[in-house]
């Protein structure tokens, strides 16, 4: 869909930004992407703070509408442009999708991002192995819960891929590819394989991230 008035701000090495780009590509929407944050800077500029007073990415502008926080952007895009694809018309299914999206943000990602920074982004000589071990235990516990849930279904909020799969799904590539020995629950891996078949996932999520190795600065 040619919607050229959509612009996304955020560095493309951030998986919070990547999940927004993944969503846009799933919906076949045209958009402009502007790198911001990290080495690109610009988050403290008045014009950016006018869009997001928290000075963080991603930010999406769709005409006169501005949305920040990655999961809020995913929901907005699904609701506005994905009624036949990513959005659940059933209130019950949408509540289920919201539950998994919120769990991804408050539980899975909260521990994974600390694990990723403690292990992958910290130089080996500076790593706190005990902290890494504790965070790994927490992440593996979360993935066991997810594995049990996926034992009887292919996707998180029904029989088809939807917005519910995007937040947690955007973590899988880095979790399994960062070089740390982790459990590989079979149902999570099957779900991961289904996501990997999606062209938008391949384009926006399944990307090299070695430039972040041992790099504590953005």
Explain what you see:
By secondary structure, the chain is an alpha+beta fold. Helix content is 50%, strand content 7%. The protein contains 8 helices and 4 strands, in the order E-H-E-H-E-E-H-H-H-H-H-H. It has a 4-stranded mixed beta sheet, covered by helices on one side. Strand 1, helix 1 (15-26) and strand 2 form a beta-alpha-beta unit. The longest helix has 29 residues, at 91-119. It is globular and about 50 Å long. The relative contact order is 0.14.
Task: Sum up the structure in keywords.
218 residues, alpha+beta, four-stranded mixed sheet, 8 helices, 4 strands, 7% strand, globular
Q: Give the helices and strands as they follow along the chain.
A: EHEHEEHHHHHH
Give me the oligomer status: single chain
User: What would you call the structural class?
Assistant: alpha+beta
Q: Poorly predicted ranges (pLDDT <50, ≥5 residues)?
A: none
Helix content: 40-55%
The largest beta-sheet arranges its strands as 2-1-3-4
Strand tally = 4
